[in-house]
Design a protein that fits this description.
The structure is a homodimer of 689-residue chains.
Chain A (H helix, E strand, L loop, with lengths): L4 H23 L5 H42 L3 H41 L3 H37 L7 H4 L1 H37 L11 H37 L1 H4 L1 H24 L8 H27 L4 H26 L4 H10 L3 H14 L2 H20 L5 H14 L2 H23 L4 H43 L10 H42 L2 H4 L6 H72 L16 H42 L1
Chain lengths: 689, 689
């Protein structure tokens, strides 16, 4: 049997399993009528956004797909044009399906989690939230693997291409996935933060009503935002990681053909496939003991997945990579270790228990300015240890691979390490989706006026969700970083350049432009949030003005209009930064050619990782500094407790508001940008040569 | 006559001219007794800081000098050790002398400017401020040139070395200059912002007294800060630019020996020397017409300098660079053009007349958080055009040089462009020092209770000073960027590496670490300001508590103690970031070797330029957004004027406070860091090979 049937079969099995999970979730009891009403509004808003978003993305994708085809056709590479163009559209389609289905489950699960909390059943609530999150996690990983494996089978078994040519042909699939991910994350990120900021500024600050208050016309838009940003956005991000990094690893595997033949090309996919099984088992074992911190239960599940992934790594390398397999197993372990290190580091920089967040808390004592400075200092500082971890992993995996004695074994070592890191992706994504689901459940409980005890359960779950969201962002940056080297090694192979010599003027210019793009893109993403928030603020003010009954509770606000306006705004404002992200590298490659494009890619990646770390973790730290002050545990330098509604708290709120578009819009969009640049240059390499 | 006597002679003439200027300034009439008293306090504070600062720097320099010597001696390169170690100490000494003397004049000029304002003589006030600023500008450029030229004469004429070996030998001088510059800028930057923030937070916010109020114990420390940060710090920065970039250009000149012999090596110095004359003439022509905007007068002077520098460039290239000189003249013009473009771009991003500052002003309407987000977006965005300008200049200068047909002519073209940009350095520095001098004059007028009319004159000059400070920072980043390529080309020549291949794992790791260092260093610089400000806040609170008479005006605050505490704090807190800036690149070079060190250097430079642009210009834009609101010209979206003491103004003050350590500590320290990394790697290249 051809071993490509492992990933093919496992991904189909994974999809079936996720269908079973969907049925389980659907069968779980609905909540009260009040809950269902709120949940329906969220669901409709989220679906409406996603439909319009994917329509916009679809149009853009078709335009780009045709453009790819035409460009190749005009340069006389008709066949490459057809192959790349269709692979691109296929990748975009699969990513869209995975994102849409995954999110549909999440927005159905939220009211059921609320209902479980209403029954005071913490374990059911937790399991429901995690398993619904896992649906998206599994679908994303499985569909992305299925797409790659199917294309591979098509070209080798049906069209009888040499297996060594196939990875180059299917890079279009990865580019399609990155393309969708960029806009999904950008659009979702803009939506979620614009709605959040808009709802807060008019609701909390101007009208003085609490968060998630049903009188706020933007409250549903805010709850919708959690789904479309975190859930759909991150799903698309991981979809493209799995696809692009597998294909990149397969391209490097080609270099090892003399040693391992087709096995070298397919090992990355096989690790991914068995990793999916490890993740599924991890998810299914999670169970919270009475009164235990739910985070502990989630961590246990993660460790189960990691342990199984270790076993997977051993058996796969041992079965397919000859007698030198132990070196590659070691490289894979480096990747698994890095996923743990990144989770720890993220926790250190964003948890209130440690120095960094406490520094921000103390900074809040002297007002918002010192809070901001402290937060930025923490953000800048927190690049150091992760970069050292990345450098160490890269060096370790490379040296282990090199020690195998296989030609290009070093590069392949880094590829295996990346696959190791990605092998628990489905679990991580389940944890990530846990965040918006529990957040929504909390909102539903709040808006439907449930009891305090119910609220306590959802609040505990929501707090855990905040932590998991931060951790998965750390994981996403880490995997992007580890994958980066693999992806540009693949680029240099495809573009047939042996070196990327920074001491040449065009390459250095490419490098400068690459670094610049990251800053420009971040600026545009931040500005898009501000603009879109402006529309919502206007709309909420208008509703309050024209319907004075809303504040007295006698008139219902028009949630739908707020959702519509946010949707339209987010979609309009995502286009410009997205287009810039594509035009700048293409222009660089066309003007300064392939080696300069490589310089662009590498430095953009480095700067992108740095800025993503700054944005994600400064944002997380600001958030938790505010939460710590709200918990009433902060005693200031004069010995006074400074809790909610003090000036210290107000200062911390400023930091949190600044951090929001950092950690939920610009930061996550940067992970995707990095990978988009890799797949983009891979696909267009022939034009730059 | 050996042409090295041109720079030697001109630099000595420049020094004599600056002595004459000092006498002129000294002869200018003193102000009232009240003014003299305040001025004396500032002078003593500044001198005390500088003495202690240079003592600390001296000790560190001697330690490092010995270390350099020992390291070389141990690796068997005894002669190189002696040469490099002494050149290093000589460079550090010259930089110290230039910094100290220049600042002494500035702190003597402030009360004389105040006196001229008191006589309602705007023209005298402006000329005094500019010419006193020019003393430092001329001394810095002349001494740095003198040092390089003297060493060159020593090695060629006295010790009879081959001229081609000399540039490599004297790189130690540049490293010494960078080393002093790093600590001068860091220490001064920490001092100035810690004193500013400390004085504001306790004085303005807690006690509710206006800025520069004599009852504030930290007011003298604040005025001292302007001198030690802007004046001494930036002086050391430009000293090292002139030194390091001349030496770098000379190293590239060696490659052109077959064409131009010694002339190729010395042309950079000669351009610098004649540029000094152009700058001096520019300074001396400045004269303000009655009631004209003083900025116009300064701009006229700058254009005079630029026009003369153009002529200089033409005659020097024509006289020394053979029949292909027109290409190099063109490259030089690229450098001069870039200095203008950078001045414009900085103005666009930091002047209230244009979109960026207006965006921050509008962001302030909805509170401090949106002000901060808008400011950061402006900061991130403002990297784009400057980077494109740098790329275009680099490419243009390289292509022009290459077209000359001379071997390595392209690189030499970039060197000539850098020299072109630097040829007006003395004028720029005079404008820069104009800032703290007029700022101080304003403070003195305020504290000595002069008339409103006097105050108006100093306020107008102070506003101009704020603009010139922003422009010179733009100029400093631009020159650092243009010089960067020249300096690492010099490094690759010294380290004898032909390529810097980013696709090798160690080089890529070096590159990542280089990018990371910039962020870490920025974090440490910001934190140092916060820490030091904390000491001052405590001290001011203590004085208010223990001497209740201060607030009633019956008791005098202890200014000296506040100055002492700031001094000690700034010096203690500058050491750690400074040491990190040296240890990280050295460790990278020793572990991963010469090519990785080059990758480190290049990516650190790119990221450093990006972050310096963000920090300088976001800071400047925040500052001017606040000033625009204070001017009472801002009409909000509801049609209401939002001036001083409104919540909109309060939001803008938060942005300004965040921007202060950005633009006056971290940003300027980054320019210096970039150049320090170049000279450091140049000096240690033999150890990395």
């Amino acid at each position: 049997m051809n071993i490509v049937y492992y990933p093919l079969g496992i991904s189909i099995a994974g999809l079936l399993f996720s269908l079973w999970l969907i049925r389980r979730v659907s069968a779980s009891p609905e909540g009260t009528e009040g809950m269902t009403k709120v949940a329906t509004a969220i669901r409709e808003g989220a679906r409406a956004f996603l439909r319009r978003q994917y329509r916009t993305i679809g149009i853009l994708a078709i335009v780009l797909g045709v453009l790819i085809f035409v460009t190749y056709a005009f340069t006389g590479k008709f066949a490459v044009g057809v192959q790349t163009g269709t692979a691109f559209l296929f990748g975009a389609l699969c990513s869209g399906i995975a994102g849409f289905t995954g999110m549909s489950v999440s927005v159905r699960a939220n009211s059921k989690v609320a209902a479980a909390a209403d029954r005071k059943d913490m374990n059911s609530a937790l399991q429901l939230a995690l398993r619904s999150g896992a649906v998206s996690g599994i679908m994303v990983t499985a569909l992305s693997m299925l797409g790659v494996a199917a294309l591979y089978v098509l070209y080798t078994s049906v069209l009888h291409f040499d297996p060594r040519e196939v990875p180059d042909i299917i890079v279009g699939f990865g580019f399609g996935a990155s393309f969708v991910a960029l806009f999904a994350q950008l659009g979702g990120g803009i939506y979620t933060k614009a709605a959040d900021v808009g709802a807060d500024l008019v609701g909390k600050v101007e009208a003085g009503i609490p968060e998630d208050d049903p009188r706020n016309p933007a409250v549903i838009a805010d709850l919708v935002g959690d789904n479309v940003g975190d859930c759909a956005g991150r799903g698309a991000d991981i979809f493209e990681s799995t696809a692009a990094e597998s294909i990149g690893a397969m391209i490097l595997g080609v270099a090892l053909y003399p040693f391992f033949q087709e096995k070298g090309i397919l090992v990355p996919l096989i690790i991914n496939a068995f990793g999916l099984i490890a993740s599924i088992i991890g998810v299914m074992t999670v169970r919270v003991k009475s009164n235990e911190d739910p985070m502990k239960a989630l961590n246990r599940g993660f460790y189960v997945s990691l342990a199984l992934a270790t076993a997977v790594m051993f058996f796969v390398t041992q079965s397919f990579l000859g007698k030198e397999y132990l070196w590659f197993f070691g490289a894979g372990m480096v990747g698994l270790a890095m996923s743990m290190v990144f989770v720890w580091l993220t926790q250190y920089y964003t948890d209130h228990k440690y120095r960094p967040v406490q520094e921000i808390v103390r900074g809040s004592e002297t007002g918002p300015a010192t809070n901001i400075i402290a937060g930025l200092a923490v953000g800048f500082e927190n690049t150091a240890l992760p970069i050292i971890a990345i450098a160490a992993s890269l060096f370790g995996a490379f040296k282990l691979g090199e020690a195998s004695g296989v030609t290009d074994g070093g590069l392949f070592g880094t590829a295996i390490a990346t696959m190791g890191m990605l092998s628990t992706a489905a679990y991580i994504l389940a944890m990530d989706n846990f965040g918006p689901i529990t957040d929504n459940a909390g909102g539903i409980v709040e808006m439907s006026g449930a009891s305090d005890e119910t609220r306590e359960i959802t609040e505990r779950l929501d707090a855990v969700g905040n932590t998991t969201k931060a951790l998965t962002k750390g994981y996403a940056v880490g995997s992007a970083a580890l994958a980066a080297f693999l992806l540009f090694s693949a680029y240099t192979k495809v573009a047939k350049i042996d070196i990327v010599d920074l001491s040449k003027v065009p390459v250095f210019i490419g490098a400068m432009l690459g670094g610049m793009l990251v800053f420009l893109f971040s600026a545009l993403a931040l500005r898009a949030v501000g603009k879109t928030a402006g529309y919502i603020i206007e709309e909420v003010r208008r509703q309050f003005r024209e319907k004075p009954g809303i504040m007295q509770g006698t008139e219902k606000p028009d949630y739908g209009r707020a959702v519509d306006i946010t949707t339209g705004g987010a979609l309009r404002n995502m286009v410009f930064p997205g287009v810039i992200a594509i035009v700048v590298p293409v222009a660089t490659g066309l003007i300064f050619r392939a080696e300069a494009a490589a310089g662009f890619l590498m430095v953009a990646t480095i700067v992108g990782i740095l800025m993503a770390l700054v944005m994600n973790n400064a944002g997380g730290a600001w958030d938790n500094a505010k939460k710590f002050i709200e918990s009433g545990k902060f005693i200031d330098s004069k010995g006074v407790i400074q809790g909610k509604k003090t000036p210290v708290h107000a200062a911390a709120v400023v930091g949190d508001t600044v951090g929001d578009p950092f950690k939920d819009t610009a930061g996550p969009s940067l992970h995707v940008l990095i990978k988009l640049l890799s797949t983009l240059t891979l696909v267009l390499a022939p034009l730059f040569m």
